[in-house]
Design goal:
Strand order of the largest sheet: 1-2-3
Number of domains: 2
Order of helices and strands: HHHHEEE
Shape: globular
Distance between the termini: 49 Å
CATH superfamily of the largest domain: Glycoprotein, Type 4 Pilin
Radius of gyration: 18 Å
CATH architecture of the largest domain: 2-Layer Sandwich
Strand content: 5-15%
Largest sheet: 3 strands, antiparallel
Structural class: mainly alpha
Helix content: 40-55%
Number of helices: 4
Oligomer: single chain
């Protein structure tokens, strides 16, 4: 096997491992399913894992867009619409993993983005926040 082939295979393995990172900690279910070669993740567990992955995707896309906005403009965005206007996100990207609109406010260190979680209520344990 050539060095290039080994490099490509290694890169693919790392990419797959990185993408599964957010769900590996979920009581080993994903690892078990992969090792067993069967689909043992069903029902609520499957939905929970899907939501975890989607949450990580939403948060990563927001973090990347904010970083790119700062690099382009030398300042943080004032709103999520600034990210859309700059072409860094689309309007469809402004929702959490449950499809609810993200809530924003100005924080001490820039834009604070919140998801109100699966229940849609602020201040409950299923909320998440990005920024300070």
């Amino acid at each position: 096997m050539s060095k290039l082939s080994r490099f490509v295979i290694g890169a693919v393995v790392l990419a797959v491992a990185w993408n599964l990172g957010p769900v590996k900690a979920r009581r080993g279910q994903v690892r078990h399913a992969l090792q067993a070669g069967t689909d043992v993740i069903t029902g609520k567990d499957a939905v929970d894992i899907g939501q975890d992955v989607k949450r990580q995707q939403v948060r990563s896309a927001l973090q990347l867009a904010i970083r790119e906005y700062w690099q382009l403009n030398g300042e943080d965005p004032r709103s999520l619409q600034d990210l859309v206007a700059a072409g860094l996100l689309q309007s469809a990207d402004l929702a959490d993993e449950w499809g609810r609109p993200l809530v924003t406010e100005r924080g001490q260190e820039g834009l604070v983005i919140r998801s109100l979680g699966s229940d849609g209520q602020r201040g409950t344990e299923d909320d998440w926040t990005l920024g300070h």
